[in-house]
Queue: 4 jobs
Job 1
Amino acid sequence: MSLNEVYITNTAAFFPNDPVSNDEMEDYLGYINDAPSRSKAIVLRNNGIKNRFYALTKEGKPTHTNAQMTAEAVKALFKDDPDGIKNIELLSTGTSTPDQLMPSHGVMVHGYLPETKPVEVVSPSGVCCAGMHAFKYAYLATKAGEVQDAVATGSERFSLSLVSANFEDEAKRLKELVDDPYIGFEKEFLRWMLSDGAAAFHISNKKNETGISLKVEWMEGFSYANELEPCMYQACEKLKDGTLKSYQDYTPQELTAQSIMSIKQDVKLLSKNIVLYGGYGVSASLAKHGVKSEEIDYFLPHMSSNFFKDKIYQQLIANGTGIMYDKWFVNLSEVGNVGAASVYFMVNELFHSGKLKVGDKIFLLVPESSRFSYMYSLLTVC
């Protein structure tokens, strides 16, 4: 059986509201126990983020759901060809922050797209890699000839989980126990990194007749959960033995008192492993497909923080897969860490930048610290 070539023929993005500067963050997220954060300045200095987006008003009221933002990104793909949205056969949506456990994120997005017809819908879960898993499902379905027109999306709505009300009960408890007026660093530092938004790829078995397309050469993924314990988690708590205790095993009172529903990260475990194991995957994926790192024209690594930039650079050199900084293309400082959508935002900005020329090779790297999994892809401009 012959397989189809697969192309990204358009990209689009949607951000809720105006960008929020570093100075404005607590105006939206609120103060824990009415006191400015002690860790905010340190985290922002390390992560290099200048702006992010919140689907919130300054009064803390939501302005968009995750599904609504994702639907807006899908519609933006077809702003110049409104009838084209009727040709979609597959909607593949990745997120780590669905608006509900059931129904799935994908069908909720489809519900906001009455312009479409009945389509196949899939909703990969996870964290940052969820967007790439959605992309890969659409890629494989198109490559196999199951569909000719697909849309893949990545989206997040983190902001509601970051507002101060979600932390105050635990902060008060900690203050009573240790006279410490702020929440534990492993829970609070993510407040100063995460951002909301959605982005989408139009995927087809035919490249554009005019203008550029991005041919998807390959996609690879690696999980190291067989070797490493959980690092980033939500709706659970990490126990001393490294296992996770589900939110379902807590009482309603405990869920609030211990901020079980907030996002947490084991910072020490993250720093020790995220770059090292990501480097293993770069070497393995490039070697498998016979690609040399010096052949890459644009390197799009998803980074949660600028803190990791030099570490990634040095690790790649140490592994014999070095990629010089002049080939890096990132927009973390302008949009923040948008999890499953971050790689989509980078590809979208580059696709519409006017910089690309036929033959350019674009290498995507998406790490997921939740239990150390990674996705990689090579695109060629055509």
Job 2
Amino acid sequence: MTSQFNSLLQVLDYFKDEAVCTTYLAAGRWGNTPSCPHCGNVGAYVTNRGYKCKAKECHKKFTVTTGTIFENTKISLRIWFAAIYLATAHKKGISSLQLCRDLNITQKTAWFLLHRIRLMLANNAPEMLEGNVEVDETFVGGKNKNRHANKKIEGSQGRSAADKTPVLGIAQQNVVEYKVRDHKVIKGRKVVERIVLKHSQVSCEVVANTEAATLHPIMLSQVKADSKVVTDAYASYKGLNKTYEHVAIKHTEGDYRTVGDNHTNTIEGFWSLLKRGIIGIYHNVSPKHLHRYCNEFTYRYNTRVVTDTVRFEDTFERINKRLTYKKLIA
């Protein structure tokens, strides 16, 4: 829909005013014919402030932002588009404090804006994972040993939800393509390097606990039967062999070994991105909003092989969601 965006400056140059932003949003949402967000009828009259549904049963007025994350916003679409670009292009995200400085808005506005973008990035209709699948759980929260003496929580180290929030992660291993690159002739010999490009898909979900009764239903709803499921030797994964080809790898402290072709390194790599992002960018994430941050990191990870422009344009297929400030802070 647009030219390539290689930087924020190019985004701002392209979306130079609200008219260009509105046209872009309308084209991406409806194409050539507006569709009523209230009743779904295709076709509308153009009014001085937007549109009016042609259906006699409806006849409601609407704009290009009605029913989207932009509805009733006081922020210009130009700033919105810049924020979406920054939030999706930065590998580990961007904090509300940094965004407020970059776009000259308040921190409160930037925080609300980023949470609406995270809602937009959520995958509400994920495809079932299959083939070789890795499953692991992690706990998000500070280490007890780093806390002040009067803030330490007894028995909270290791797999404990007493002071941390558990998150279940599922990763599908998938080889996309192979490439062969020919190098220059070196000392009369032609050097050929074979490059393997891998593209894995990840799904993660905040859970109440890591008991089998909690984890198994999630896996059954997201992973096809008869797939190979690789986990560690945690007791909650026992019984998966009834539905899957289950491989359990016994990990010791700091040991992430590969048994044959089986490993959990893919999902462990995703956890490192998630935790480095939280520690380095956000510093602290409340359990109340953790699921939205998981949406953000999952989306960027699953679209990491595409360009920033493609990722930016893809987000506009997800804008038909609404999050009010009242609901966010409830």
Job 3
Amino acid sequence: MKPITENQSSPLLHRLWIYQKERFPVFQHGLMIAVFSFSAISYARLSAGKTGFIDWSIYLPVVFITFTMFLMLRIFDEFKDEEEDKQHRSHLPVPRGLIKLSELKVVGIIVIISQVIVQLIFFPSMLALYAIVMLYMCLMAVEFFIPEWLVAHQFWYVVSHMMIIPLVDIYASGSDWFLKGESAPHTLMWFFAVSFMNGIVLEFGRKIKISEHEEINTYSSKLGINTATWCFLSALLLTWVLACGAAYYAGYGQITYIILACFLVLCSIPAFLLLKNKEAKYTKAIEVASGIWTIAMYLVLGGGQMITSIF
């Protein structure tokens, strides 16, 4: 996205609105996170043989918490990447002066206070799971105290950072089993694995560029565009295998496997087109496909199954 022209003396709320458009689109992320939370809870219930959904007075606060968890992740990243952004991404909101880190710090404090208050009102016991997620997020912010090693070992860098997604999954699904003092269904491990791989798909999907649009720390710049594209396709395939496993152990019908296979084919097409023709429109299509794939996995494994069972 191209930077939006702004007056840096504009009111904070106006500048934050521009910031979210560029770095954390509220409506786009809100939809995906609502689906993510709904599906995590739904899969936990369906795989445990339960019927119906949790009360909406629980679900809506959970969506708020999970949404703001990912917002906090974005804010932490702004601090973590401050120097690198100054050197290589001067067009971003913070290095170009649209938003100060001190202002984002205030936003972050307000968000955390709001999260704690919401949980104290609706489900105080969930604060234990919340603390685990936030502690891990803080460790991510300091690169687990081994930043140089992680940069030199990109595989472990990606793995360590993608683990935040299953942790948020545990929190979201815990609004069913944890609140009731139950053990998590063992089948949830399949769903957590799919969530982890969805994060990998999204990560590769947004960091494959053609040479004219190349940026620092993209996978195409590190691995070469062909290798990065094959990694994206491999991540899709592995996620599909795990999704099939999740569907099997939850007892879903044959139509689920057909739908999963259709999405695998559909979302692979832009990558194969990019391998054939190195054009920017195909890298953008891969990024879009990664988003479609992620939402589809959550809907197929959790959301859609729950809606069908209710109606």
Job 4
Amino acid sequence: MAYISGVFNDLSFDSPILSTVYSAVTFLFRVNILWIGLVIFLENKNPSRTLAWLLVLVLIPVIGFFIYILFGRSYRKKRQAKAKILSDSDRMQKAAEVQTGLLEFMDLPNSENPANKRLMQLLLTNAKAPFSMSNEVTVLTNGISKFDRLFGCIRAAKDHIHLEYFIIKDDRIGNELKDLLIQKSNEGVKVRVVFDDVGSLALGKKYLRALKLADIETFAFFKVPLPLFSRDLNYRNHRKIAIIDGEVGFVGGLNIGDEYIGNSEKFEFWRDTHLEIKGEAVYALQTIFLNDWNYVSKQYVQGGRYYPEVRVKNTSLVQIAASGPDSEWKSILQAFYKMISNAVDKIWITTPYLVPEESILMGLKAAALSGIDVKIIIPSQPDHFFVYWASQANIQDLLEAGVKIYQYKNGFIHSKILIVDRLAATVGTANLDIRSMEINFEVNAFLYDVDVIIRLEEDFVQDLEDSLAYEIDVFKKRKVYRRFLEAMGRLVSPLQ
């Protein structure tokens, strides 16, 4: 042992070559630390997040350096994201060229409620989210309902099937989907699939090879060669979109996998919400998909076949808004803020993660303090450790302001719903956390149809019955270890 130690010391300090290498590596490491610190200081507009990252680099420079490499912002990817083929307005113009009249939806429709008109105008301005009136919207409660309807539409497809999902799993549901897609491709239906490279990390080559052999085109979004050592873990495609024949679209919280129908070792039941949309709003979902497809595939797919004539006679006002690092504005975050600030009667929220940006947090507290009925349903058990404890860290402040918070006890709740005053609601892929609001690519449907909103309220009331309310006096007596975990979650959350 002494001999080994002596050799090590000799190599470390007495060898001129190794000493020079050691000095050079140390110098470069320190330069990288200073460079990262400068980038964070100059680029990060959130003071708490900037301070958190700088403290990590100062207090634990070696570990902090590798944490940033793994999870810090990738500015190369951000520039790449902002270069995504066409701007939103250009995309809507291209869609208009193949479907006469789409630009009519860029004019503000009549609305009896001034608050709704302001929300509509906001989404029109910050997300170029077109209005569509001729729609039929069906709320799909939980995975079985969603997959029954989705697979039924896929079986009936005649021209094309477009799928874009954060997670696709190689399990029973995933293979049922794969077999359906192969069958439809063999029938001559064009099938295109976009999946997130990190979210679908476990999707093996065998699964993708089977799709390719059936002439199904698949592309990974923001491909990550070494996911465990990559800064490209950020800017993920969190969207869940399906469009069949340009006539029916699906959007919401459900990915593709057995856990979403409750077949999971971790969760006995998975509570989620999805939408099936027929009509003009499908144009917007189609355009979002094609923009993403053209970006990842380097193709340019367009044409009238993707925007067929609408046959729906129902009247249901819908706006489809996309957001992400390629957006000029944080459109979904701003829309959430506007909905909350517009409320005069009630704000009902279901979210798996309660880590809102400061403006949303303040808006919720101000609403409750002013007498508005603010209710939030969150999970009672975690699916992501740090985000769960970051959520718990916000509970006491909200309870003290009069916000009513409930923990869902019938499994895991993953729905992403915001309902305001029975006048407006939104369902989509965006969570109430920093990652969804600022980093990931998301898509939400904003709904103004009272009948659809009432249907969402019915689900919310049922979820309340399956939940247990947090009591402020009891919560304040929580154990020290829980407070410690909350503090850890709070510290980590700005680093996303």
